[in-house]
Specification:
The structure is a single chain. The chain is of the alpha/beta class. Helix content is about 45%, strand content about 15%. The chain folds into two domains: about 160 residues, Leucine Dehydrogenase, chain A, domain 1 (Rossmann fold), CATH 3.40.50.10860; about 150 residues, NAD(P)-binding Rossmann-like Domain (Rossmann fold, 3-Layer(aba) Sandwich). The strands form two sheets. Strands 9-8-7-6-10-11-12 form a seven-stranded mixed sheet. A five-stranded mixed sheet has the order 1-2-4-3-5. Strand 11, helix 11 and strand 12 form a beta-alpha-beta unit. Helix 14 packs across helix 15. The chain binds glutamic acid (GLU). The site of glutamic acid has 12 residues, from strand 3 and helix 13.
Length: about 425
């Protein structure tokens, strides 16, 4: 079962729960556009290598296509298609006026110099040409990319518009560095949003976050910010895993020291502030919140059976496969689904895009306050639907998104 099968399975369940219009259903089963580009890039040693890049544009009925750009060795068509569809639902859940898209290049960025990464990014952007743009399709960071990557995309894109349009297209990507037109609070936004969602869950369940525990899979942008922000509320990080290994500590791991270690060594393995544990031990860690913040398909029938947590909070996109989801439901473990829990990133991307359009710079407090308001509202809407229609949280989030999208299709009709 690949990521796209999982995404379709989720859509089918929601479609059945809400009686989705069959025509809208048919449209949403496939992305609108699938772009695949193969492009050569000169390596530092003078040789050339051919790269395969994707940009999948799932849907733009609610606004311009929007979604991340992933650099990873396992990027493939069905993965990018799934991620693009999840972006459509995510933007609709938080009522951000964007559609869904996703891009990727199949390679391991850790095996390349900064100069090679720059040439790969620029050549990919050039190959996409006018298939992206501030009013059409707006990439952002994802696994393996960051603010610097986005600035390279922006600069390359600016180089093929007329002189007098250059500044007007600054919003052709979001997640840029602050100095090149990024927003305050964008880098931590996904982690911050996830923490706001956890706080809402805690409020609803009268659960004190001070003194609680969490385990994290992945210590990249999302994981590291979640660790820092949750710790500030009195929670302690009792286990962490990434592709280098897993570390545990009953008394809690120090988020900033761990971030420093990951920065220096590339992974959590060898961190002196905790003990090495096995993957099986990691999944079986006793904690309140289990937070996958890495890649898809991590919570399977096998790993879901091991979890000893109250809630799974999906920082990653698509971390739970269909079997894993069934096991969690049987075991009474709640899910705060990706399209709600990790929507903070794209929400602040929208704020960045708005600031670029208006030539404004909002303060961090303004950004955080608006992000908080957006997620509190989305959480309340999803939970109300879940209660009223007796749905699980994921299906409720899908139903909320799909009802908004279906409504627009009904109003606009299908051309011609
Ligand atoms: N890659 C992030 C996500 O999956 C952010 C997307 C965006 O900001 O457009 O939500």
């Amino acid at each position: 079962m690949n990521a796209y099968d999982i995404a379709i399975g989720q859509l089918e369940r929601a479609a059945a729960a809400m009686n989705l219009d069959p025509q809208v259903h048919t449209i949403l089963l496939q992305p609108k556009n699938e772009l695949i580009v193969n492009f050569p890039v000169k390596m530092d040693d003078g040789s050339f290598r051919l790269f395969k890049g994707y940009r999948i544009q799932h849907n733009n009925i609610m606004g311009p296509f929007k979604g991340g750009l992933r650099f990873h060795r396992d990027v493939h068509l069905d993965e990018v298609k799934a991620l693009a569809a999840w972006m459509t639902w995510k933007c609709a859940v938080v009522e951000v006026p964007f559609g869904g898209a996703m891009g990727g290049i199949k390679f391991d960025p850790r095996c390349h110099s900064a100069a090679e990464l720059e040439r790969i990014t620029r050549r990919y952007t050039h190959a996409l040409g006018n298939n992206i743009g501030p009013d059409h399709d707006i990439p952002a960071p994802d696994v393996g990319t960051n603010g610097q990557t986005m600035v390279w995309v922006m600069d390359t894109y600016m180089n093929f518009v007329p002189q007098d349009r250059k500044n007007a297209v600054r919003g052709c990507v979001t997640g840029k560095t602050l100095s090149s037109g990024g927003s305050q609070g964008r880098e931590k936004a996904t982690g911050q949003g996830l923490v706001y969602v956890i706080q809402e869950w805690a409020r609803e369940n009268h659960f004190p976050l001070d003194g609680c525990t969490f385990a994290l899979q992945g210590y990249g942008n999302v994981g590291a910010h979640v660790a820092r922000l949750l710790s500030r509320l009195g929670a302690s990080l009792v286990a962490v895993q990434d592709d280098s290994g897993a570390i545990g500590a009953g008394e809690g791991l120090h988020p900033a020291r761990l971030a420093e270690h990951v920065q220096q060594t590339g992974g959590v393995r060898g961190f002196s502030g905790g003990d090495e544990i096995s993957a099986a031990e990691f999944f079986a860690t006793n904690c309140d919140f289990f937070i996958p913040a890495a890649l898809e398909k991590q919570i399977t029938a096998e790993t879901a059976a091991r979890l000893r947590c109250k809630v799974v909070v999906e920082g990653a996109n698509g971390p739970t496969d269909s079997e894993g989801e069934r096991v969690l439901a049987q075991r009474g473990i709640d899910i705060l689904p990706d399209i709600l829990a990790n929507a903070g990133g794209v929400t602040v991307s929208y704020f960045e895009w708005l600031q670029n359009r208006r030539a404004e710079a909002w303060t961090l407090d303004e950004v955080d306050e608006r992000l908080h308001r957006t997620l509190v509202h989305a959480y309340a809407t999803v939970r109300r639907l879940a209660r009223e229609r007796r749905l699980d949280n994921r299906t409720a989030a899908y139903v909320h998104a799909l009802e908004r999208i279906q409504n627009v299709y009904r109003e606009r009709g299908i051309f011609p």
